[in-house]
């Protein structure tokens, strides 16, 4: 178990990895001996160790806020798919936890003192050697300034920072911090009323706006972006006929739906501000709003997709607890019905199930086109091929009604041949490739946006307002969008809902034109 938990250190150096694995094993053994006579403490310790073991086996990361919230929001169908895919790892973790709880620990004061002393020394000595300067260095200042600290008091911040510093040697601290942060988020109150200021709709604002949000779609697996497999023939045909504008370097605001979609669909400098959502902005500009989803409608968790959907004038969910139980084509007649419902200006948001696991459940049998030794990749690419078909149908319908359509995916997945192949990259930080997603519009809006520029969806409100010809004080003040979009770095939320930035590659430094 210790070797699995320290896989990242083993990958960097076998010697250091083995030393850290041995240190962690001794520390856990010592703590279990100390807790031998207090069953509840022993159970909690075993649960934390087993949970870390399971997460490292499946996602090669520790517990995070995003994982906690995703579990709380997961419908039964997703839970079943997850168990089918990772049941082996869950079984190993449960067996390990059971052994840690039930194996007899013989009384031996000498062994208890020795193992505890060695383990705690491994954990604490490196930190103690840095005191007190650790609370004055640039990393601590950065920790305070970036909002990683919750800032209840100086003492609290120092204790919390110490736990962060200790977590590489005892990763179970990360799970404790994630659970505490999750409880904080669940206790927050979200203002459901708009706080946008000075909103107006331009003379050239489209009468019909349709916004498509894809799911778990890697730009690198679309032939539209140079992928060797022909996964997007319909979209490529539209692009060749100059009816589709494709943006080449678009990056999601997070690596899972729970943190990415709220960050994309709101105006914020840090955590999503639901009072400044795209839905509220469109309503303030005079649009009738619709949220049509093939995902499940869930409880009112903070920053959840459901809380965004409930801001719309009209909502449609396929199910309350079985998202993806039907193919995405179920949304096409709902879109047609929404378009025909009135003559008012409309914003219609389509939330697809796209390429969410289990991939083979995302498309009808006739789209099972790819067949190789890598069945998981084949199934994923088949889901992309089906998405290509669905997008063509949506575009034809929107075009028929002289509307405008913009599509992006909420996040990507890990590189197919990488360490977390086609999984949510909830590591901190994630690989930038797992943030790269497709985005395209029809008709073309080249006069507003440069297709070659890196576009951070964290600031999607800047894209949306140009596309929809809507203005607001928050967008226009101090050249906000010019600064946000043309920054030299990408901004996104990591798995613990902390704002992170990453420098752009030099080749993506061309500026985005916003008019």
User: How many whole angstroms does the radius of gyration measure?
Assistant: 25 Å
Q: Give the CA-CA distance, first to last residue.
A: 56 Å
Number of helical regions: 19
The CATH H-level homologous superfamily of the largest domain: Alkaline Phosphatase, subunit A
Write the layout of secondary structure elements.
Elements: H1 2-5, H2 7-12, H3 14-34, H4 39-58, H5 65-73, H6 76-102, H7 109-128, H8 138-145, H9 154-166, H10 172-187, E1 200-201, E2 208-214, H11 233-240, E3 245-251, H12 257-264, H13 278-284, E4 288-296, H14 305-309, E5 314-319, H15 331-340, E6 346-351, H16 375-400, E7 404-409, E8 436-442, E9 454-456, H17 460-468, E10 470-471, H18 473-476, H19 480-485, E11 489-493, E12 499-503
Notes on the protein architecture:
The protein is α/β, with parallel strands linked by helices. The chain has 2 domains: 2-187, no CATH class; 206-508, 3-Layer(aba) Sandwich (Alkaline Phosphatase, subunit A), CATH 3.40.720. It has helices at 2-5, 7-12, 14-34, 39-58, 65-73, 76-102, 109-128, 138-145, 154-166, 172-187, 233-240, 257-264, 278-284, 305-309, 331-340, 375-400, 460-468, 473-476, 480-485; strands at 200-201, 208-214, 245-251, 288-296, 314-319, 346-351, 404-409, 436-442, 454-456, 470-471, 489-493, 499-503. The radius of gyration is 25 Å and the shape is globular. The longest helix is centred in the first third of the chain and has 27 residues, at 76-102. 44% of the residues lie in helices and 13% in strands. Helix 3 (14-34) packs across helix 7 (109-128) and helix 4 crosses helix 6. The strands form 3 sheets. An 8-stranded mixed β-sheet has the order 5-4-6-2-7-8-3-9, with helices on both faces. A two-stranded antiparallel ribbon has the order 1-10.
